[in-house]
Automatic annotation (TrEMBL):
Keyword Membrane attributed: yes
Gene3D superfamilies with a match to the protein in the record: Amino acid/polyamine transporter I (1.20.1740.10)
Domain named Amino acid permease/ SLC12A: residues: 100-603
Name by which UniProt lists this protein: Solute carrier family 12 member 10, tandem duplicate 1
Listed GO biological process terms: cell volume homeostasis; chloride ion homeostasis; potassium ion homeostasis; potassium ion import across plasma membrane; sodium ion homeostasis
Subcellular location, record wording: Membrane
Keyword terms, alphabetized: Membrane, Transmembrane, Transmembrane helix
Amino acid sequence: MTVCAIKGTAAHNNYNVASVFTVKHFCLDLLSNSASESRGSSMDLRRSSFYSTLDLVPQLENYASTLPHQKSRSRPSLEALRKAFDVRFSTSGNHISQQLMRCMLNIWGVILFLRLTWIISQAGILFTCLIILMSVTVTSVTALSISAIATNGRVISGGAYFMISRSLGPEIGGPIGMVFSFANALACALNTVGFAEVVRDLMQFGVVMVDSVNDVRIVGVITVTVLLFISLAGMEWESKAQILFFTVLMVAFSNYFVGTFIPASVEKQAEGIFGYHSEIFISNLKPDWRGPENDFFKMFAIFFPSAIGILSGANISGDLKDPATAIPKGTLMAIFWTTISYLAISVTVGSCVIRDASGNISDILIGNITDGCVGQGCQLGWNFTECIESNSCNYGLANNSKVLGQVSGVSYLITAGVFSASLSSALGFLVSAPKVFQCLCRDEIYPYIGVFGKGYGKNDEPLRAYILCYVIAVAFILIGELNIIASLISNFFLCSYCLINFSCFHASITNSPGWRPSFHYYSKWTALFGAVISVVLMFLLTWWAALVTFSIIFFLFGYVNYNKPKVNWGSSVQAGTYNMALSYSVSLSGVEDHVKNFRPQCLVLTGPPNQRPALVDFVGSFTKHISLMICGDIITVSRSWLVKWMNKRKVRSFYTPFSAHSLRGGARHLLQASGLGKLKPNTLVLGFKTNWRDSSSESIEDYINTIYDTFDSNYCLCILRMMDGLDIFDQFEIDDISDKCDSDQIKTVFQNDQGKKTIDVYWIADDGGLTLLVPYLLTRRKHWRSSKVRVFIVGDEQNMEEGRNEMVALLKRFRLDFNDVIVMTDSEKRPHAKNLSRFVDSVAPFRLHDEQQDGISVEDLKQSAPWKISDKEFEAFKLKSERKVRLNEIIRRNSQHAALVLVSLPVPQSDCPRALYMAWLDTLTCGLHCPAVLIRGNQQNVLTFYCQ
């Protein structure tokens, strides 16, 4: 594609073959093309921009540079563009059903089958539903926070730990990674013990190995060992096992609900099962606390672990093809359907089964004699008074953990469901814990744990971490008591949920441009509520366990904070530090920059700011409350009163006057010396010098040299040109402001909120994303919020739709909600002769014609006026000039009704005459009826679609 473009342009241009510039670039383009052909057809659609064959149009691959363990190709640097080098690139896949199934399996755990009916007998139907809804409230709010974090860039691996650490930094991420990994290992033990209890109860009909407690321990250790081997076999086997478990569970649920409608036999009635009866439902509505240790929060603590499976999909985010889509949809759908199932089972079983029954058929009442009868069975023709008074009842909701099996059509299917629920959850947590711990180990936050981070095989399986999780699970399986393990787990997971919600809240309030989750259905206040309610529940459940958990967290936090690991994840803590620095001048010298927290920190060469209010208002529109703005004034006398003018205008900016003999010298000093620590400009903003043709040669050269110095210093550059009659760079006196730059007219342009405005972005060259970031920041302001943003890109007729789809995909990855993407397919056409002639006439005063020289060589004239254009240079850059004229035609045709136009600024090459480059800038933006911004990043990413 590059060769075709070069051949076409060469034939079209009639370049001077002797031109070193032409030959050099033509050869380099041939070499770069031959290298690119070997990279496959996927590279064939890559196009050069209007400006250079090396200066490529924006592409998704340029931003895929943060994947670990991968070599990536970056875009050309500014130096490469000016000195002609070529660099190439790389790329990056939705299993919502996989995420949904995994979450549902982990939520439908052992508590559902072995403890839910007992909780109903204690708390009653109403309080049980309240417990379920409270748990769902905590998990739903947390799921919203997870979805927001997971869609703010791609989550590579490590699940909840990765999200928290990359959002709140290593100080909080490290401790929660340790606690969360440990909690997942405990959850594996919990579900394994539940499975072992069922196996023990089945064996007691025929055989007992040791005793009831030790049998649970033996079966549990054997079970977790088998699960370990399944995990070690790889994710493929684990996924196949989960599908089998899910199928069995669906059959078990269907079997249960069918069984509730089957008329109860006498034997079932003796066991307390009567089918749907309003008397049973009303009687079971209220609680019946039995024992001093049983209360509402004890029941909540036992039930809550059944809701912790919401993170199971996020914990294996590295194995999901599209975690940003799968995690939000899969998690929220899983919470919805499992909540419906828990509520349905609670209401149905509470309507069919009484609390106490003896199982003795002889307890049936003869006639209507109910004197002395106690319990719910009396109204249904059964007298279970004896076993109730002696606390020897073995059946009913309060006494039998197999109620669901007895109610169902085929009890063995419920047993199979118990096996599936417990084993699937145990297997899920056994896989999750090592994945999270592996990521923690690789971050090297804590010493001596790096050995567990080593991965094996094509899926990078953490085999050593599997063994460690297995050992921890076995240790807690040996406790052998389901209720004790459940209470311990609740604290650890509530602590994790607290920090996940706080991560989302903190990232939201820091107002970082890097916080752009594509999942919008969350609120920072719901996240804060989730964090607070999690802490409150921790202390209400088991206050001493909450204190122990937080003590561990604070100890681990202190260790990381003291050692200060050398990691930089672009966390919201860094963004918060930035805001504090803006408010309290806190130094950020110890914090490295990160692409997610990039902010256009602008040095604006306003002169006296009140003389160029449009320039001040424009930059203030996208820096206020977000980033640094410095108004630079190169002066001979002090104008400190201008600070009051900016404060009155509510411009959040520093005013920095500096005495210098020239614009170039003053700008160079301000770029190097302005700012404090990280509060240092990275973007120079200029007004466009529309009177450049009438200015002195020294003035023109001084202005253009300032632009050249900006690129040489690797700064971003932004040049604002107002519409005709609103020139903002030409010098004028304060008394002339009302005539030349009326403030009301400027506010109409930049602060009017009437009607829907259009911002057109011509992203011609890939500058790192600043051309997109500035309009995004503008649309965050109230006055621009309703604006329609359109992105124009270079393309051709054959691949127009494909190019547009690729750009739409890139914008979605960036979480930028722009309205439309338009492919310019006529960029290769010649400009109209009239417009081209106008351009030639505009540069005629700056031409050095060979035939007009009387004994004076062109070289001598170039030395005296280096900014002027020789015939050879004019011919060498003829094609580039024509492309600027053609681009201006396209802009004027498409953006005649726009409120603002942003165009990628061409990089000035070292051998380009200054006057010709100034004519290019003039040509690109002339004839527009709105302000135009020529903008260029420094070729470094300011946007990213990765979490890290």
